[in-house]
Amino acid sequence: MMRGLHYTILFRQPRLRNCNVISPLMLPIRSASGSQKSITVWEPSRKSSKRYEVSGGKPMTKLEHMKHGFQVLKDEIVSWKEEQMERLRCDPLASFQHGDYETIWKFNSLDPINKWIVSTDKDHNIGKTEAKLELSPGRKALFHGLLNTEPPKDGYHAKSGFANIMSRRASRSFKRQSYLDWNSYTHLLMRVRGDGRSYIIVLHTDGYFDVTWQDQYNYVLFTRGGPYWQTVRIPFSKFFLAFKGRIQDKQSALPLGNISGLGITCMDAIPGSFQLEIDFIGVYYDAHHTEKFAYEMYKTRPLVAGN
Amino acid sequence: MFILPHHILFLFILLFSMTMVACSNSWFSMWLGLEMNMLSFVTLLMTSVNMREAESGIKYFLVQVLGSIGFLFGSLSLGCSGFFFSFNEFLWTYLIFFSLLLKIGVGPFHFWFPGVMEGINMINCGMLMTWQKLGPFCILIDLQNSIMKSVLVVFAMISGLVGGLGGLNQTSLRKLLAYSSIGHLGWMLGAIFISNTIWKTYFLTYSFLSLSLILILFFMGFTHINQVFSFGWEKTTDSLMIMMMFLSLGGLPPFGGFLMKWVVFNGLVNNGLFLLSTILISSSLLNLFYYLRVCYSLSLMGSDAPLWVSMNTSTNISIWVVLSGVISIIILFSSSFILMLM
């Protein structure tokens, strides 16, 4: 995993260019990854770098903290009780028929939309992109904004321009981290209406140790512009591993039991307005889909990455 | 899978280290054997490119190191305890005792076990469930005294309950087998009370059944309950044998698993351990519940079998499945011979 100044993905992957890999990897999608150069593997925080931590918000007094804490405690006890009741019910979904699907996020009201986090390069002081996630007049989630690729004049970043929406991290009661268990499904199912741009679907799979905190699996979604909705079924086997936005040489299949959240990113380096309307995001089971991982790993010489 | 030279090397070290633990007469050589075993097993866990396997390997390493620290500190202190009050001897013995329980994942020291099992492949799961428990148990058998037996009863009960309750809501087969293993550890701790031969019989039968099941699940590529669904329509004989192995693990007559539990239960009752036997039997029912859920998915649920997907299993695997099932029944009918060993 190389860290340092960013360069385009095409130059990073000469090996993949010569093999039969799915074409989205070859498209001129430039990431605005500006992660700091580091000679260690230790990560100080889950947000990758303190440089990008967003500060803000009015600090609470001690009394307000205590009141807030009691309220949080009450809510957490209620969710803990629900978890125990679910466990005692002891009826997990064990059998799936071909065509079964489950809606994970349905954006038909403000409540599910408010649980998603919108971030742009402007929030991290490395750009001027603006984005919002709102409820559209047709009661769907509308992710729209203005992508600005002008880099900041800080002498560090050469590229800029991304906007992202991300679901909150899967968690259990008492703020314990959890994962979405999609082991029984084979495809990601989405009903979207785009503007012809390409968006990157990001599945976060952070693990227990800090070297895995920035692991993510990406897939490039091409949208059709126009008034018609499109229902996309993306096989999980097509997602490829990236770390802090950089595609890794050593690839592996998506661990479906380790998904902490989903994100959608617009960073196709085309300045201007963008708009993506989302009806729902779910998962789908296809009994005839037997592919585990779509990308081949070639045996390389010793001391070459990928061996 | 085990075709690389370093796999063979580390497997040999695994075998050698466990022999060393079983044949040692000093604490230090036992610790040495346990460490060699742990290091070679961690290496086998980390040979995959999968990040999850590497993570599970590190978690396993950290837990085992903690146990080894306690074991070494306790055994060294025990060697020096002649200079202090004799009360300290109990303290260090209990430290060694708890360290060994942590190493094998007995409840309530079991929290690492399902997480590690979930991340590793099926073959390593089988080794973790069976072979890795052998060394610590050999030491536990020699370690027990009258006071420790009462503590052992408590841990056996906790382990049985944890194994029963923990697997109830699981759909992952590896986690299910992990909780099953924790439950069987309770039975093995109970078997220690009766005699070494009973414990060995239980361990051998459990290892045979578990490894057979693990091998079949490995070759079929099953990791979750939904994958075994509708398999029964493809291979009736194989699904019947897998069912028999699950029911045998659950302790249902007339399978071999019932015999191993019946012998332990009989011994516990004869020794007056009624509470332990009751709790182990009750938790065994819970184990049987989630085994039956798998068997139900395997063979009894009617479904539309997908026409274009077929399980390509070789004839050799089918033979192995049938052989395992038959042997698990033969174990029952050789009960008179086994009872003679008691």
UniProtKB/TrEMBL annotation, chain A:
The keyword Protein biosynthesis does not apply. It is found in: Mitochondrion. Pfam families: CIA30. Signal peptide: none annotated. InterPro entries: Galactose-bd-like_sf, NADH-UbQ_OxRdtase-assoc_prot30, NDUFAF1. Residues 105-278 form the NADH:ubiquinone oxidoreductase intermediate-associated protein domain. Keywords: Chaperone, Mitochondrion. SUPFAM superfamilies: Galactose-binding domain-like (SSF49785). It comes from the Eukaryota. Belongs to the CIA30 family. This is Complex I intermediate-associated protein 30, mitochondrial-like. It comes from Priapulus caudatus. The gene is LOC106815930.
TrEMBL record, chain B:
One of its GO terms (cellular component) is mitochondrial inner membrane. Residues 1-23 form the signal peptide. Its EC number is 7.1.1.2. The gene is nad2. It holds the Pfam family Proton_antipo_M. This is NADH-ubiquinone oxidoreductase chain 2. It comes from the Eukaryota. It catalyses: a ubiquinone + NADH + 5 H(+)(in) = a ubiquinol + NAD(+) + 4 H(+)(out). PANTHER family: NADH-UBIQUINONE OXIDOREDUCTASE CHAIN 2 (PTHR46552). It is a multi-pass membrane protein. Keywords: Electron transport, Membrane, Mitochondrion, Mitochondrion inner membrane, NAD, Respiratory chain, Signal, Translocase, Transmembrane, Transmembrane helix, Transport, Ubiquinone. The chain crosses the membrane at residues 61-85, 91-113, 151-170, 176-194, 201-220, 240-260, 272-292, 317-341. It comes from Priapulus caudatus. Residues 24-284 form the NADH:quinone oxidoreductase/Mrp antiporter transmembrane domain. Core subunit of the mitochondrial membrane respiratory chain NADH dehydrogenase (Complex I) that is believed to belong to the minimal assembly required for catalysis. Complex I functions in the transfer of electrons from NADH to the respiratory chain. The immediate electron acceptor for the enzyme is believed to be ubiquinone. InterPro entries: Complex_I_Subunit_2 (IPR050175), NADH_UbQ_OxRdtase_chain2 (IPR003917), ND/Mrp_TM (IPR001750). It is an enzyme of class 7 (translocase). GO terms for biological process: mitochondrial electron transport, NADH to ubiquinone.
